[in-house]
From TrEMBL:
The keyword Ribonucleoprotein does not apply. It comes from the Bacteria. The lineage of its organism: Bacteria, Bacillati, Actinomycetota, Actinomycetes, Pseudonocardiales. InterPro entries: FAD-bd (IPR002938), FAD-dep_Monooxygenase_BioMet (IPR050493), FAD/NAD-bd_sf (IPR036188). The keyword NADP does not apply. Residues 3-325 form the FAD-binding domain. This is 2-polyprenyl-6-methoxyphenol hydroxylase.
Length: 380
């Protein structure tokens, strides 16, 4: 079996570590921050991601940490009118999480001693079928480097120096967590933006307001007050959610993605997750595609005769799907925040037969959700 270095201790990096452990590899996870954790607020995971978690062996604890969300079934307008409405008792295909809860599930499944914090990678080189990284003044060498260090990946910058930097998509988002229990989840479409609600564990709700912005890095002295100013008149429970979010805890981010690369592999280095295919959140697939990456990479390493053959299989298998998903998310985000398209979009949703809408959000309702993971061998 082999040895790997995983750069990045987020959801994608830990998923890679868990997957490598499943096939009998050893790994060292290098995380640049001094304390391991997951930033952000909430997320949803679709059936494809849940199947990946099952294959990683963490499906049961992940489902225990998640909460069913009907956000895809409850679509509203700012005055509270429903364009589509989930029926009581309708099954839902998606689970919602606080990011930290899903991160903890993966961290608990990562072998003790594999994660090193405060280890920022500053250089790497490849020679004689090995990869060496420089991190925190130390050098580490392994058979494989998995770069899961996010949209501004060091490995991507070093090995793909001509690749374009992250692209600002003309949209910005405010995120928060409020102590509001019992919400089923919903999405409210307004002219130029939307408001998303997911229930998360321990009687809380995650919310996000996404809207257009002409340039990045526009910030406000009081982000919570700014969100209230913009959408405080929208239907209940939106004002309550914003009001009950602790002061100073509202997160404001700009939305970026990455243009497609011709390959995710250089030598014995493989990009994974956002380092390979960062995408906008509009299809809820960013973390899910990272989980898929981890399973596919480990399956290839377990079955191909060489690391090089495994990385070729990983690259050719993952690029078409992830790049198509990223492009679709970019288009979805532009459509759902377009003032010009607002009336046509809401009319289309309102006129769609409810049965057809429910079929579209069933576990097998679209090609992205229908993905099936390769099987990982039994733990060595």
């Amino acid at each position: 079996m082999g040895e790997a270095i995983v750069v990045g201790g987020g959801i994608g990096g830990l998923a890679a570590a868990v997957a490598l452990d499943r096939i009998g590899w050893r790994a060292t996870v290098l995380e640049r921050t001094p304390v391991l954790g997951e930033i952000g607020a909430g997320m949803s995971q679709a059936p494809n991601a849940l199947r990946a978690l099952d294959e990683l062996g963490v499906g049961e604890p992940a489902r225990s940490a998640g909460v069913p969300t009907c956000a895809a079934g409850n679509v509203r307008t700012p005055d509270g009118r429903y364009l589509q409405r989930a029926r009581p008792g309708d099954p839902t295909a998606m689970l919602a999480f606080h990011r930290a809860d899903l991160h903890r599930v993966l961290l608990d499944a990562t072998p003790d001693g594999w994660v090193r914090t405060g280890a920022e990678v500053t250089g790497l080189r490849q020679e004689a079928g090995r990869v060496t990284v420089v991190a925190g003044g130390d050098e580490l060498t392994a058979d494989l480097l998995v770069a899961a260090d996010g949209i501004r990946s060091t490995a991507r910058r070093l090995l793909w120096p001509d690749a374009p930097p992250p692209r600002f998509l003309g949209r910005t988002a405010w995120l928060g967590i409020a102590d509001v229990d019992g919400l089923p989840g919903s999405m409210t479409l307004g002219p130029g933006g939307y408001f998303l609600i997911h229930p998360v564990a321990r009687g809380r709700a995650y919310w996000a307001h996404v809207t257009t912005e002409s340039r990045p890095d526009v910030r406000f002295d009081d982000e919570k007050a700014e969100v209230t100013r913009r959408i405080g008149s929208w239907h209940d429970p939106i004002p309550e959610l914003i009001d009950r979010t602790p002061p100073g805890s509202v997160i404001h981010i700009d939305i970026h993605d990455l243009d497609p690369l011709p390959t995710y592999v250089r030598g014995r280095v493989a990009l994974l997750g956002d380092a390979a295919h960062a995408m906008s959140p509009d299809r809820g697939q960013g973390a899910g595609q990272s989980l898929e990456d981890a399973v596919v990479l480990a399956a290839a390493l377990a079955t191909e005769p060489t690391v090089e053959a495994a990385l070729h299989r990983y690259d050719t298998g993952r690029r078409p799907r992830t790049q198509a998903t990223a492009l679709g998310a970019r288009k979805d985000g532009a459509r759902t925040t377009s003032r010009a398209a607002y009336r046509a979009l809401t009319t289309m949703i309102r006129l769609m037969p409810a049965a057809l809408w429910r079929r579209s959000i069933a576990p097998d309702g679209n090609a992205t959700w229908r993905w099936q993971p390769p099987r990982l061998p039994a733990r060595a």
